[in-house]
Structures are given as structure tokens and as C-alpha cells.
Amino acid sequence: MSNFIFGRYLPLDSVVHHLDPRNKLLLSFCYIILVFMANNPVSYLLIIAFTIGAILASKISLGFFLKGIRPLLWLIVFTVVLQLLFSPAGGHVYLHWAFVNITQFGLINSGYIFIRFLLIIMMSTLLTLSTQPLDIATGLASLMKPLRWVKVPVDTLAMMLSIALRFVPTLMDEANKIMNAQRARGVDFGEGGLLKQAKSLIPLMVPLFMSAFNRAEDLSTAMEARGYQDSEHRSQYRILTWQRRDTITWIIFVVVLAAILATRRW
Amino acid sequence: MANIIEVKHLTYRYQADDPRPALDDVSFDVHAGEWLAIVGHNGSGKSTLAKSLDGLLPFTTGEVTVGGIQLTPETVWQVREKIGMIFQNPDNQFVGATVADDVAFGLENRQIPREEMVPRVEAAMAQVGMADFAHREPSSLSGGQKQRVALAGIVAIAPDVLILDEATSMLDPQGRRDMLNLVRQLRAERHLTVISITHDIDEAAGADRVLVIDDGRLVDEADPATIFARGDQLIKLGLDLPFTAKLKTALRQRGIEPPATYQTASEMEEWLWQSLSNT
């Protein structure tokens, strides 16, 4: 679990860290669309330059991004190889054997797909490494606000998200404690065949469920005692402020977007 | 002193057909500004009583009046404005993602505008000595610190009554002492009425008045000195004795006759010195 980099937060003091989380979420989303817009070497170079710029600005060492890619490496290799071997005819044909078809287009396309994977994973790693989970939750809640018009209970969802995030470490601790307690009573976790392993999870899952129910009960009582009636009629302590640096990132982004649209092969 | 809480013939059953109610015809008053301890063994109905006072459990029969407002389903939120509650488990009542968020939770519910909220949250955190921890997450705090944050949440909304529902029972001795000192200090500064529900006998010994509850019935009501003078009776109710009472029992067994009335640790010390210097 400890070398799983995706979804972890790295506290550093950089421009990227101080950006508004709403801004970062929106940028990451638009960035993914941007990646799929690029379709020739020039536009790819542009977008790679933009990504490297963002990574340098975050002061996070490249090693973390490479670690972020590692768990997805098999998926990338699988997709790239598939693309390489079974692409439709086009351009110069290098190898043709049965239904395997290595062509010039296939080669270029699989190269592009490889770069796309890399860029998207790097950018989403950058998002989670530079933003606290809590800020991501607040940012998401704030971005969901327009959904109120279609009767989505945004405030309730935001409250649920924030409580869920707050209880993740607490429940992890609890799970560890239960595992150790059951081990001390002779339960073997993660050993034996698939069926035996699944069975050994029961003495972990059932107490964890029960304790979650107890926690929920206690928490709802405490919330009620502190005057919580519903999530709509509340004021907000935690607010997000859009600053000048957020505007600047968008100016840069729009410039890159325009350049890519201009160089793109339509 | 005026009564801030009046309880008349309160009866509560968890199930309608329960032959033995969790609370059976309980009546008592709480004076404004006093420290009232409610003691009793596990399952005697202490927590049920605390939750009934705040309207968290709808009681079957009886009447509860808080600060002149009678508790009914319509007035329950008004009553909760007057009462701050701290529960037993520090983890399960921590709603906010960070210390500051948790202290602000009660204020958010009252729709206090943010400009007013920020100074109040800061003042409350400073009061309980948690100002340096404002952006810490609950998983990085100790049990005692979490309970102090809970107390800061109460300070921020400034209620008239503070109910401690076994708030110190999951803390270590140091955390417990800190917490009680803090409550004492707050009470002196803000004229709070404190109701502490506990089976920690030393906590009860610091109260102005003690109610003893057994099997849902109120069995005794007096100042701590009177209550703790009835040593054997307390043990029969499943309660522990304060340290000085235990010491007296041990002395009696060795043929030394200490005074029958209850004494605090310093009074006991004084008596020991005197009896030794007389011989």
C-alpha cells in the first residue's frame, strides 16, 4: 500500500500547491480533452512542454510520477502492443503475417497512445500529489453546485464526501486493529487458496461493519446535538478563493489550446 | 438559585412493551451555574437520561423544561441551542475534517456568517489550547486533544448548559485531569451549568451535588460529602469509592478509627498529620 502513489498527497510549497482546487480539477478535466485533440508531432510536443512545465512548477521530483505510472504499466503495454499488431492497413507495411499487421500508421498510432497514457497519468498524479483530499472534496462540491438546478442534493453529497474522507484513516486504523486482534486469535490472513482467503476475511469484515454502524449512530447523535438539521441551511466555514495565479494558469492553458488547435491536422 | 432544568416524572422505554423502563419516574432540578454529577453503574440509565434532556431520545411520559422552554418535538431545536453535549467516544463525534472545521460545525448549523465565524472559531480554539492544531486532522490527535476540540465546539456556540456524557471515560488520567480543569475554568468564566454523567468517582467528588441513579430510578441526591460517607451503600449500587474512603476502610481494618464524614485528599492529609502529632 505504501508504494501506491496515486491518490496520495505530498505537502510541498509551490505555485501548483497553492492553486484553487476547483481550478485544478477543471484544468485536469480540460487537459484530458486537450490530450485527445492533439494528433501530430507538433501538437504533441506542445502538450508535452505544457505538462513538463506544470510538473516543474510543482517542485515534485519526477520519481513520484514514474511510481504513479508503474501500477498501470501492464495496461499501457497491453494497449500499445494491441494497437501495434492489429492496426488497419495504411502507409508502409513492415510486416504482414496471418492477421498480424505492423504498418507505419499502426506504429505512429501506438506511439501516440503511449504518450497519451503517460501524459494523462502524469497530470492526474500531479493533481492528487499537489492537492489535499479534503480540498479535492471541497472543490468537487463547489463544482457540483450547478447540479442543484436539476435537483441533485449537492450539499448532502458534499457533507457525505467530507465525512467519508474524514473517517478513512479512522477506519483503516480500526481494520488494522481488528486484523491484529484476529491474528492473535489464530486467523491467517492472505494465506491458502482463494476460497480459504475469502473465508478468512469474514472475521475482519463483520466486526468492521458492526463498528461502522456504531460509529454512524454515535456520529448522527453528536451531529444532531450540535444543531445539525439539514445540509441545505448551513453557512460555510471553509471557502475557496480564486486568485490571480488561477487566472494566469487559464491564460497559459488557453494559449496552449489555441496553438494545438492551430497545428492540429483536421 | 433559579432552576435551569426541571425534570418531572420522566419515564423512558426503549421498546413500548418493555416491562422495565430505562428511566422510571425520574424527577430532579438543576440550579443555574451548579456542577451536577450523575453517577450510577453501567446500564443504570445515565446516558439515556442525558440524551432525554437534549431531546435526542423521545421520552414516553414526563416533562422536561430547559431554561423556561418545555421540551416538545416543536421546541427541540430551541432547547438544543441551550445545551452543549460532549459524548464518550472522541473519534465518533468529530465531524469536521480538521480541528477548525470541527469547531465551526455548530456555527455552520446556526447559519452564522463566515466573517463572524472565523474569530469565534479562533477564540474557541485558543481557549482550549488547540490554536496551534487548527489545521490538523483528527487522525493525528490524541483522545484528550479530540475531546478538547469537542469542548471548543461547545465554547464557540456558548450554550448555558454543558452535559458531559462520560466524556472522560476513554481518556488517560492526564487527559482526564486536563479536560476537567478546562471545564472548571470555563464554568468559572462563563457561568456554565455543568451536568457530568460519569462513573469516575473522583470526577463526581468535585461536583456541587451528586445524583445517584440505579436501574433507572433516582435513589439518592446530596452533596458529594454526604454521598461518599455512605461507603457500603455505594458499593452495593455497584459504584466505586473515592480514594480517601478506601483509605479509611483500610485504616479501620487495622484498628484505626478515622472520622465518619467524607474528606477530600487534603482534609484527609490534615487529619493524618494531626492524629500522628497527637500521639
From TrEMBL, chain A:
Keyword GTP-binding on entry: no
Membrane topology: Multi-pass membrane protein
Assigned GO CC terms: plasma membrane
Keywords in alphabetical order: Cell membrane, Membrane, Transmembrane, Transmembrane helix, Transport
Transmembrane segments: 44-65, 72-95, 107-129, 247-263
Pfam families assigned to the protein according to its UniProt record, in alphabetical order: CbiQ (PF02361)
Molecular function via GO: transmembrane transporter activity
Subcellular localization(s) per the UniProt record: Cell membrane
Self-association and partners: Forms a stable energy-coupling factor (ECF) transporter complex composed of 2 membrane-embedded substrate-binding proteins (S component), 2 ATP-binding proteins (A component) and 2 transmembrane proteins (T component).
Similarity field: Belongs to the energy-coupling factor EcfT family.
Known role: Transmembrane (T) component of an energy-coupling factor (ECF) ABC-transporter complex. Unlike classic ABC transporters this ECF transporter provides the energy necessary to transport a number of different substrates.
Protein's name according to its UniProt entry: Energy-coupling factor transporter transmembrane protein EcfT
Encoding gene per record: ecfT
From TrEMBL, chain B:
PROSITE patterns: ABC_TRANSPORTER_1 (PS00211), ABC_TRANSPORTER_2 (PS50893)
Entry GO terms, CC: ATP-binding cassette (ABC) transporter complex
Keyword Translocase (UniProt): yes
Family stated for the protein in its record: Belongs to the ABC transporter superfamily.
Subcellular location per the Swiss-Prot or TrEMBL entry: Cell membrane
GO molecular function, one term: ATP hydrolysis activity
Membrane-topology descriptor: Peripheral membrane protein
Top-level lineage group: Bacteria
Residue ranges of the TM segments: none
Keyword terms, alphabetized: ATP-binding, Cell membrane, Membrane, Nucleotide-binding, Translocase, Transport
Keyword Transport: yes
ABC transporter domain sequence ranges: 5-240
The name this protein goes by in its record: Cobalt transporter ATP-binding subunit
Native organism: Levilactobacillus hammesii DSM 16381
